Amino acid sequence: PVNVDVDYRQLLNEAMAAARPVLGTGRVADYIPALASADPEAFGMALATVGGEVHGVGDWDRPFSVQSISKLFTLALALAHGGDALWKRVGREPSGNPFNSLIQLETEHGIPRNPFINAGALVVTDALHTVTGDALGAVLDFVRAESGNPLVAVDPEVAFSESQHGHRNAALAHFIAHFGNLHNPVDTVLEHYYAHCAMVASCRDLALVGGLLARHGVRADGTRLLSRSDAKRVNAVLLTCGTYDAAGEFAYRVGLPGKSGVGGGILAIVPGRGALCAWSPALDPSGNSVGATTALDSFTTLSDWSVF
Ligand code: GLN
Q: Which residues does the annotation say bind substrate (predicted)?
């Protein structure tokens, strides 16, 4: 049911205009110095359709810190290579708590509530490392291949900064390890987790990578990575958990499965149609970009691009 005469560029321009009044609203992530220097008013947005069209507005080609959007890629790869056994080690219910919360881990015996909070993403990184021998390498190869951009890389300053300020993540990893739910050394898991969060990529790159889920699990080269059923499941978990304790609000406003990162990016999937990535560094209290959410809200309101 794609509207063939839809003018994507105009829709993107209108989404950018809608976001303009809120750009700079909220706070740039400042838990590490390397992110605190981002321009709070920067904005970019890209759209990659399943038909191969790519459009963008603003700074859509400017690389930014991918952060937790990478958790979507590790999940897809861990499921593709390791299968359903992963779901014995991580749940798939919204947590209702902040992304870096430790609270539920104790009562739930080291089984994180879902793969997108930090606790769950650490388990997913561990699982991916076990099946591939190199979690970071697997994610980097995948993102480079899907985006067609061999320059996607890890920002070593951000990765180092994460490890220097990562007491909370280290606490989560040790707590999970205490329950026997990490199979690799804690330091190895943290190192690969920090590194994949510290990847830098643009809205264009990430929208193209999101094509995997828009095509129901088929990669850019036409090979299948995820079964159609697994792609449906990943999209469902994205919708319910991808924006943490604001997932209800995000579903209400945007109506799409989406994954945010504290670098200010949000990658949203329109199954069967395409993927959208919006970026602006200022965040709401849940750690989701205010400008990106507003732009996606506008885009799905103006177009018929929603799962609802
Ligand atoms: N690297 C960040 C952290 O572990 C990722 C958090 C995020 O983007 N929500 O805290």
A: 68, 118, 162, 169, 193, 244, 262
pLDDT, tens digit (0-9, with 9 covering 90-100), for 243-252: 999 999 999 9
As for how many domains the chain has, the answer is 1
Which residue(s) pair with 218 in the sheet?
A: 224
Cα distance between residue 133 and residue 138, in whole Å: 9
Q: CA 71, CA 215: separation in Å to the nearest integer?
A: 19
Angle, helices 186-197/70-82, rounded to nearest 10 degrees: 130
Q: Which residues lie with the beta carbon below 6 Å from any ligand 1 atom?
A: 67-68, 99-100, 118, 162, 169, 197, 261-262, 287
Instruction: State which of 197, 244, 284, 286 you would mutate to test the pocket of ligand 1, scoring each by most atoms of that ligand within 8 A of its C-beta.
Output: 197
193 is in an annotated binding site: yes
| 285 assigned to some structural domain | yes
Torsion over CA of 140, 141, 144 and 148, rounded to 10 degrees?
-170
Identify whether the C-beta of residue 116 lies closer than 8 Å to the C-beta of residue 86: no
Q: Which atom of ligand 1 is closest in space to residue 162's alpha carbon?
A: 1
Per-residue pLDDT tens over the stretch 231-265 = 999 999 999 999 999 999 999 999 999 999 999 99
Distance between CA 178 and CA 45 in Å, rounded?
42
> Is residue 87 included in any domain, yes or no?
yes
Of 33, 46, 38, nearest to 64 (Cα)?
38
Q: What is residue 5's predicted lDDT score, i.e. its pLDDT? A: 59
Domain range enclosing 15:
8-302
Using the mean position of ligand 1's atoms as its centre, give its distance from the Cα of residue 169 in Å: 9
| Residue with tokens 């650490």, as numbered in its chain | 122
162 annotated as ligand-binding:
yes
The answer to whether position 286 is within a domain reads yes
Q: Which residues contact 293 (CB under 8 A, 6 or more apart)?
A: 250, 253, 254, 266, 278, 284
Here the CATH number for the domain that contains residue 252 is 3.40.710.10
